[in-house]
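Lab meeting prep.
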Amino acid sequence: MMEETKLLQWSVIRSLLAILQWWAFNVTVIIMNKWIFQKLDFKFPLSVSCIHFICSAIGAYLMIKVFKVKPLITVDPEDRWRRIFPMSFVFCINIVLGNVSLRYIPVSFMQTIKSFTPATTVVLQWLVWRKYFDWRIWASLVPIVGGILLTSVTELSFNMLGFCAALFGCLATSTKTILAESLLHGYKFDSINTVYYMAPFATMILAVPAMLLEGNGVLEWLHTHESLGSSLIIIFSSGVLAFCLNFSIFYVIHSTTAVTFNVAGNLKVAVAVLISWLIFRNPISGLNAVGCAVTLIGCTFYGYVRHLLSQQPPGTPTPRTPRTPRTPLNRMELLPLVNDKLDDKV
């Protein structure tokens, strides 16, 4: 009995430590990126993304090839171009749009809009794949959509370019999740192997546009910026921490349940919003804060509904849903393809 109690206590402590280090890396990367754009005046999101990809590619190589923290998942050369490359392209767009949105809008607004991802994933699967979902899934999206609308209408630092970048970033995240189901079928990637294969492709995709669109601006910044050494350390440190974030995701996956991860993910957004406000002091109205809170509560409820549906035995019909030729016959078709545990953020 004592041994079981100790094991339970250690399991709780391990889960708590995993969540805290994940929070720390995630919030630090977001705050550092915003600091780079706003305080260091390095207004080049493509270049920042490219630095993150390079640091992550090097980090993943070291973790797999040198330190052998994770075994390499072998992928056929043909599959690298046929499957991994398209995924890397969407992955690249997702990260770039996230950094572009941070360039123009506050962290609080950007993080709230990112919470729209479950809704875009469900709608995309419904429109493109003609998948039908349990009515409770649709109901759980109502507070998410309502909270996003309230936050957007009452945002005091609203910027259309930043808003659109964040919104299209949600679509890119949803597309990545849906593509992963088909393109990566047969490969069980963890976050480290995902970065190992995708970061080099993403660097290759982004390097030329970054040089063409931002090259002159970066050179001018290097010649005119004061405290160049410390600023470059901050910029490259953000790349190292971006890789550490992916590594922390790998750790937290093996230390928490899906429900715990969902709740912790929404609380992490709240923590990021609070810390960013304490640092940057961007104005937040009362209704704006209410909208953010409603969105996070909606995301938590959505995760809870998905968990409940995932516990149903295969073949269980959808309650109070009329039977049609397209009504799903198994629980996998009732659930949106949202992999909460592999939201890689390089």
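Slide two material, second protein:
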Amino acid sequence: MALKNLLALVVLLGVVGFSFGGDLYEGYYRYKNCPQMEDIVRDVTYQYIYKDPTLAAALLRMHFHDCFVRGCDGSVLIKSPNNDAERDAVPNLSLRGYEVVETVKSKLESVSECRGVVSCADILALVARDAVLAINGPWWSVPLGRKDGRVSNISEVNLPSPFANVTTLKKNFADKGLNSKDLVVLSAGAHTIGVSSCGLISSRIYNFTGKGDSDPAMDKNYVEELKKRCPPTDVTTSVDMDPTSAHKFDSHYFNTVYQKKGLFISDSTLLNDIDTNFYIQMQAVLNLNTFNSDFSKSMVKLGYVEILTGDQGEIRNFCDRVN
């Protein structure tokens, strides 16, 4: 009888949306009398991804950039008349997909019971998940209840760099409560989709040490392929991060990195660390196929980074400005 009562309690808590995890929980907006929130987010996101599948990588990247500066508080969405907000920082100038978040917010604000209830931070977290799901990527739980930040400063943008070595990257992630596995899964693994530009790899293939050479850590044949795609003065042409499956969410990019064809120094350097190298080999050589599951777990952890809840922050009326 005691076991049956315990099971009934677990089911009840799941229905009303409580979590044993603390500040965030699933079903948060059902509790806030806006039960259609997640359906609206999914429907709008799917409409955009259907028209432009490349937005999946862009929205995932936006969520990552948001969480790494002041936590997952939607501060990357804020505009500044002085061009001094997070979105004005050089690494964020190429962010795309703001219109998806803005459309979701507008739809929610048009529903009386959802007006002034749903945070932009939660919208972005859900949009990133649903965008990946829309291209047949993995699903992960997105506990909700984040509040929106009121501060967005260009000077605070210090994101993990595509030119960083593995020691620096491990510290970047550790500072956010993320470990080496999260690093290799989120930093390299997420590059299974999306594109970069010739400008970000030009020095790596043409003038790595200032002597007209290429990075010896990159496969020489791949360097020649990239040179055909990217002439020395070209900084705008796009380059697929995963050259064989850039539009498919899979573990193939680990094979690419293992073959020394990782596009960024930040990917190639993961071969120089025992922990990150081991994970790459598990996926690329042993084909353990744990990437989707691992990615989902790391995304849940990312979504908890330095969150604002309760009386902290606010619920913005418009995602691109504070109230």
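Talking points for slide two:
The CA atoms of residues 86 and 92 lie 7 Å apart.
Confidence is low (pLDDT under 50) at residues 1-21.
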